[in-house]
Sequence to fold (896 residues):
Amino acid sequence: MSTKRPKSTTTTSKGKDKKADESSAGSVAGSGHPNDILPLTLTSATQELFGCRCDEDVTGDNPYKILRKEDIVQDMRMRAAVSDFSPMKQLVLDYPEDELLLVYDRDFIYGSSFYLVLTADAKERHLKVIEVALEREPSEVFAAQKTSEPQPWISLGSEQEIEEESVTDSRPRLKYRISRVRREFGAPIFFSDRNAMETKDGFIECTPYQDKNFSLKQMERHTGVQTIPNLKSSSTQTQWTYPRSMCTQYEPREFSEEKKENCLQSEKLKNFVNSVASRFEIAIQQNEIMDVFFDDWKALSEEDSGYGRKADPHLKEYQSFTDLHFSKEKTISNINWHPTINGVIAVAVTERLSFEDRINGSTKLLLNPSLILFWSFSDPINPQLLLECPDDVFSFEFCPSDPNIIVGGCMNGQVVLWDISTHVEQLQGTRTSGGKNIAANTNALRENETPVVRYCAVSGIENGHKAPITDIQWLPGTFEVSRMGVPMENKNGICVQIVTCAPDCCVMFWDIRAPRVLQTMADQRKQKVEEKPLENPHGVPNTFKHLDLTWKPLIRVQHISYCKTRLQLVLSTTFCPQDGELVYTDWKLEKDNDSGRLFSAKPSHRFIIHDGQVNTVRRSPFFKDIILTVGGWTFAIWKEGVTNGPIIQSSCSQKKCTVGYWSQSRPAVLFIGKEDGNIDVWDLLEKTHEPSQTQNITATQITCIKPWIVSSKQHLLAVSDHLGTLHILEIPWTLRSPSSNEKLSMSKYFEKEVDRLVYFEKRREMRAKEKKDYEAEELRKKTYLISHQPVIFIIGTLKL
Amino acid sequence: MAEVEETLKRIQTHKGVIGTIVVNAEGIPIRTTLDNSTTVQYTGLLHQLTMKARSTVRDIDPQNDLAFLRIRSKKHEIMVAPDKEYLLIVIQNPSE
Fold:
C-alpha cells in the first residue's frame, strides 16, 4: 500500500506534464503533432477573403495554399480580435519568409480543417512532399517495392523514459578489505556465556505491545435474558436423635383420704360452697322448669305430618309370586327372606291336606317331591332355585352366620340341611342384572329349568322327632350348648347349633359340626359303622357329609305330657307354647340322683290364655323381654319376669288369628294375619281395643307374615296365603317411621301395664283375704245363731 | 363440715342432677358423687376448660372475671362455678 502511493503520484504528475506540454504547444487535440504546424479553423468569411474556400479552392487533391504574410497581417489589423489568425499573431510575425503555407486538412488529421505551417523548413518539406506526391503519383504504381533508406533518428521524447529506467551508478563503488590473523584460521572454537544485560544494547528486544488493531470494542451484542428467583444455597446441621420406644404410665393425682377430709373441713371451702350454691340452685331450677333448648316447632311438625298423610296408610301391593308347577294345590307354610341377597325370598310349600288325606294319598305324595322355592323380585314367574326336601317342610331357617346354609324341619321329624353356595351367584346375578339380562336369563331358565338343590344332610329317621317339626331355630353364634346343657361361649362366632321342637314332647338340640372324639367308645364305633363313604348323587356339596343320615341330636329335652309347637330362644330359657298353653321353662338338664339319667326340670310356669293353638311366639325387636303370642282368636303380649299373666291381651276378634309379627321399625306396631285373608295392623299407642287398620290381602287364610327392611325408603311385608301365593306388600310411611319417643312411650306403657297387673294381683289377694275374713265372720255368726236357737227335730219317715 | 355437706346434698337431690364434684385449684377432686374414673375425666377436662374460659373473659376485660360456666349438650347440662381455690361441678339432665 505504502509503496503504491508514490507511483500514483508520479503517474498523475506525468499526465499533468503531458497536458502542460500540449497546452503550451497550443493544440486542442491530445494526439501528437509536430511543433511546426499549427492547426486552425477558418471561418467562411476568412476562407473567401483568402481564397481558400473548402472544397472549392482547396480540395483533398490540392490542399495547399500559399498565403502572403502581409495579407495575414493586414487581416489581423483590420479585424483585430475577430480574425482567425489572431491567436498566432506572434508566430506569423516571426515567420521569416513572406509566404506561409496553409494546408487544407480535409481528414482532420491534426484536429482542424486547416493547418498552418510555421517554419520554412516545414514548408519546404511539405511543398516537396506535394511535389513529390504530384510527381510520384504516376511512378508510385510501378516502383512500390523501393527499399526504404535509413533515416536519421528523430527524437520524440522517448529517450527520457529510457534514461529513467536504466540503472546507473549514482556514486562510485565502495571497496572494502577484510583481514584476519592467520593463526586463527581453523582454530578450535570456544564458546562462552555472556550476560546480555551487562552491556547496554547487548540485546535487542522486541517487546510485545497491545496492537490496537485487535482490541475490538463490541458495540452491539445479541443476548437473551431470563429472570430467576434469588437462589440461595444454605445448609444446616441438625442433631440426629435415635428414635427410642418409650412409654409412660400415669395416673391422675388424687388426694389421700385424710387430705380430703382436711380440705373438706377448711373454712375456705365452706365459704366457697355457700357463695356458689345459690347460683347453682337458680340454674338447676331453671332446667327443671323448662328446657330452653327444646325446639317446639320441630316437634310440632312431626305430629302434623302424620295427620296429613292419612289418605295413604294402606299396605300397597308390590309384587306377588305364584308358580303354576310347584305351588298348585299347595299352601305355603313358612317364608324367609334371604338375609344378605336383596330381593330374594324363600317359601316352603306344603300339601294342603289333612292328616287322613295324607295317609290316603301317601303314594301319590311320594311322587311329588316337596320343595322350598326361592323367588327373586326380578322374575315373578319362575322361581330361581328349588330345594328338594324328603318331606313337607313346616319350618326352615337361614343360618345367620352363613346364609348359604339352610336348615329345615320336615313332617316326618327329620332335620334337613341344604347348602346353596354353588347357586348363590345365580341368585345374586338375577337380582343385579335387572332389566337388561332378564330376557336372557329367563330363556336360559326355561330351557334348563330351575335348578334343584338336593339336601346335603338329613338326620336319621330314628334319631329325629316322632312328629312333624313345627319350629326350628338357630342358636345365636355367640354361644353354644354343651352336652350337659350348659350354655358356653362359642369362640367361632358362627352358628353351629339348632334347636327343634315338635308335638312329640321333645325339644332337641342339634350340632352341625362333626361329632367330637370325646364320645364314648360305643357311640364312636356305632357311628363309624354307619358313616359309610357316601357318593354324592346330583352333585350335592359335601358340606355336611359327616352328618348325613347319622345326625343325632346333641341334647334331647323331654317334657312329660307337654307337646310343643313353637320355640323362642334366649340364653337359658325357652318359652314353649302348645295347644293354648304357654309354658315357660328352663331347659337345663338336671341329674336325677336315683337313676343317673338326665332330665329337664319341670316347667316353671304355664298359662292358658289362648283359645286355640298358639301359632306364634315372637320377641319384640326393640324390647328384649317383651314377647308376642298369637293363638285362637286373640293375641297377648308378655313380659319376661312377670309371671302373673300377659301384660296386654287383645279382645277376641271375629276371625281366628293365624299368625302375628312385630313391626321391624316401629316398637308399637304389630301385624296380625287372619283366617279370612285380612291383615290387622295394631298400633298400640293409638288404640288397644281394636286394630288401627284392617286390610284384605287375599281370599284365604294367611299362613305367614314376615316383614323385611330393604332400605330406609322401602319396607316390605311378605304375606303368604293358604292357596300358595306369596304377596309382597309395601309398608307405607305411616306404618314404618316411628313417631318421636315411640320406644319410650311403649316402654312406659308396658310398665304401666305391669303395674296394673301387680295392682290387680294385690287387689285379688286383698279381696281373697277380705273374702276369707268375711266368710269367717259369717261362719262365726252362723254358729253363734245356731247355738243359740232352739233345736227343732224334724223326723221324716221314709216310705219304702 | 356439716354445712358443706348439707349444701351439697341439697344440690344433689334436685331433680335430674346426676353428680356433683368439688375440685381444688390444682384440679384434684376432693369430693364427688360419681365413680372414680368418671370423676377424674370430668375434673381434668373441665378444669382446663374453666381456666381457658376465665382467661378469655379476663383478656377481654381485665376487671372482669368468670362467674359461672354452663355447658349445654344434647344429653346433659354441665355447670361449673369457679373460685380462686376451688371448683364446683354439677351435671344435670334437664329433659327428664
Observations:
- Residues 326 and 371 of chain A are 8 Å apart (CA to CA).
